[in-house]
Amino acid sequence: MSSTIDRPATKRPSARASGRGPARPGIGEPASRAHRVAQGKDARTVAPLESHAQFEPGAARDPVGLLLGQAQSRVPELIPIRHGRMLVSAFTFYRGAALPMAADLATTPTSGLWAQLCGDAHLSNFGAFASPERRLVFDVNDFDETLPGPFEWDVKRMAASFAVAGRDSGFPTKDRRKITLAAVESYRTAMREFAEQPLLKVWYAHLDIEQTIREFKSQIKAKRYKETEKALAKARTRDSTQALGKLTTLVDGRPRIISDPPLIVPVEELYPDMEAAALNEQLRDVLGKYQRTLQSDRRHLLNQFTLLQIARKVVGVGSVGTRAWILLMEARDGIQPLFLQAKEAQASVLADYCAPSEYANQGERVVAGQHLMQAQSDIFLGWTRVLGPDGVERDFYMRQLRDWKFSMPIEQMRPSGMRVYARLCGWTLARAHACSGDRIALGAYLGGSTKFDEAIAEFAEIYADQNERDYASLQAAVKEGRAEASTEI
């Protein structure tokens, strides 16, 4: 298989050898197109297209136990916030339950065709952000769980997220199925188109969100179209200058991050007994290590900024409890600030079911996966390793806190609008997989019929049922005292 991700790495036992799941495909000489097409079609004997509808929950499933297990490596006082955010709805539960679903996906039929996975490809992990050329592009935007694995796992998580979100919005079964079918059909047809294109054309492909919205104008009601245009215009104002006004206040003429515990806590409040000089020295060392992972021109740019302050910030749903920091940087010219975000990178939820990462630093794993899957990435995307005050080393990846970032208002979507959005997500995921996996084998496997689409749409509804049961299990665990949830969300 000629695949970008299938390159030699440090030798480790495969997941299948350890009894944990499918083995990573082997590495061979670049194959002919005919051989790759045959490989894709042969995969149907291993996992027929119709088989992807199957899901049978095991008797020993314990989704709450898996979630509580994750809490062991996270900030203890933030775990109740994570559970509280997951309990808002069945969809927010789904957003935080990437690990239970990874365990479930490992029990389903597997094609053996691998790509770099997002690992958490639900519909809220797609969105718009600024490209280096200052255009709004649409792409996958969360890579905490990225790892090579069976391509259909990402497709199933994406499709099921539309089924779950559709239920939360009160959409009828018929509308939900149309939405999930739109997502999967868009994925399949895009992959087959990519299979016919030169590799460089695939790598250069990207989705300009404003142009795309204009193309879908006829399928969107005039009021919704105007609202979307306004939202995109507002996204362009979401940068470090806007964050400065929202997250800081002036103290003695200098900006300082506003304390809002437990959601935002300046580092000096978290470690009041640590000498300021020692703390600042450690922070500068961390920043220096991070800078060395950037391109030389970006290191030069970052050197034009000085670190003013750092604070812990609670972000997301599934990420809550992992350590996340915001860094306030001041430009030498004093005109425009820069906010960076450092997020802790732990082992992917897929690691026990695929194969361990080839990267020793989990932050580098995230960055490498993001570069493989995204058409264009943040110019300040890098990684580092930090020795915490507790003496534990932890891996982080860093990027800009805000750079025109925009997420679609899922809760405001009508069925027609969600179908349009589903098509965008399907195309985007296909492009990411086409760059890292064997697009020719994948296109041949998926085929020209709707069998794969129908099977995944069926799986999506079955898994939405399971998600509701798991959501109820977490509610019961909180009521019984097995888990703790906070209303401070």
Can you walk me through this structure?
The chain is an alpha+beta fold. Helix content is 45%, strand content 14%. It is built from 18 helices and 13 strands. The protein has helices spanning 33-46, 63-70, 79-86, 90-96, 98-105, 151-168, 173-195, 199-204, 209-215, 222-235, 240-247, 267-270, 276-291, 296-302, 362-373, 415-436, 439-446, 451-480; strands spanning 114-117, 126-130, 136-140, 147-150, 207-208, 248-251, 254-257, 264-266, 305-313, 324-331, 338-344, 382-387, 393-400. A six-stranded antiparallel sheet has the order 8-9-10-11-13-12. The radius of gyration is 22 Å and the shape is globular.
What is the count of β-strands? Answer: 13
The major β-sheet equals: 6 strands, antiparallel
Strand order of the largest sheet: 8-9-10-11-13-12
Q: For the terminal residues, how far apart are their CA atoms?
A: 46 Å
Percent of residues in beta strands: 5-15%
* Computed Rg: 22 Å
pLDDT averaged over residues: 87
Shape: globular
List unreliable stretches of 5+ residues.
1-23
Helix residue percentage: 40-55%
Which structural class best describes the helix and strand composition? alpha+beta
Our count of helices gives 18
Explain the layout of strands and helices.
Blueprint: H1 33-46, H2 63-70, H3 79-86, H4 90-96, H5 98-105, E1 114-117, E2 126-130, E3 136-140, E4 147-150, H6 151-168, H7 173-195, H8 199-204, E5 207-208, H9 209-215, H10 222-235, H11 240-247, E6 248-251, E7 254-257, E8 264-266, H12 267-270, H13 276-291, H14 296-302, E9 305-313, E10 324-331, E11 338-344, H15 362-373, E12 382-387, E13 393-400, H16 415-436, H17 439-446, H18 451-480
